[in-house]
Amino acid sequence: MVMGARGDDGSEAIGRRVPLRTLLVLAVVAAVGLVSCSGDGGASDLSLTDIRDKLQDAGIECDGEPEEPEASDSDFGIEVSSQLECEVGDSTISMAEFPSKGDVTKALVIVEGFACGFGGEDVGFITSGRWLLSVSETDSGNTDTELLGKVSDALGVDVKTIECDESDSSTDSSDSSDSSDSSSSSSDFSDIALASGDDPLAFGDTAEWEDGVTLTVSEPEAFTPGDTSSFDEEGGEAVAFEITLTNGSDENFDPGSVFPNLRSGTTEASEIYDYEQLGDRPTTTLLPGDEAVWKVAFNVSDPEDLVMEIQPSFGFEYADAIFATD
Asked: What are the structural domains of the chain?
């Protein structure tokens, strides 16, 4: 997959062939029009093959077969079950299908957080259910709005746009090195540190950040996944954790981007999605002093040897808290 973005001087900032799941992170940084997650329900059950066929029926020459990404290609724990890319004229249609809405939501957080960080160009995309699609100009990496509109008509799914302006771009030609403004881009990615310290915590303890936000992760408990869950019964055990997020800051807080990563023994544990038993993650804004409580579950190889990495906001704003078994 080719992606690229050009700086103010016309030089290519990024231009190399990378797998789609790597693109989920890098292409956004390069201002490639990528994807979001909550879309029109009418097309939510389409496979990538169905999408390709619909585009061909509409006269859009999108060829190729969906491919399964290499197992080693993973960024930020985002899983991609299949991907398809086709060249149409001077543009590229990129689409991905995810195994769960949780992985789609992770991609959304990255996209919305960094889409306008470079170049200042608006980012357009199409999404529904568990699939995501973007159309970008091959040379510049900017969204091809004309072709994206045709794809939208063919699929019957509205285009969504993240609007950017020049003030959003970190490639602004103004010299920020001479400025004493503490809000300059050099501090944009600095973490909010842990007030509770960097040492690993025991499950059941509480991590606190300097702005007052806290996270408590309960001790793991045995969990029986339902028939409609994503649990793979071949190997592993299911365990669940209760997470309590408290907004101790002075500002409203979005709880919708808490995504823990878990290692069990020597392997990464896969999250179990079971909406019937676990329900949805919190998405409603927490006012100062409010808290949200929900459960997450994982398929683990050794329930006695667990290490969880978690932060209140998926991305780079908060330092990671570590919870571990004894």
From this structure: 2-168 (no CATH), 201-324 (2.60.40.1240)
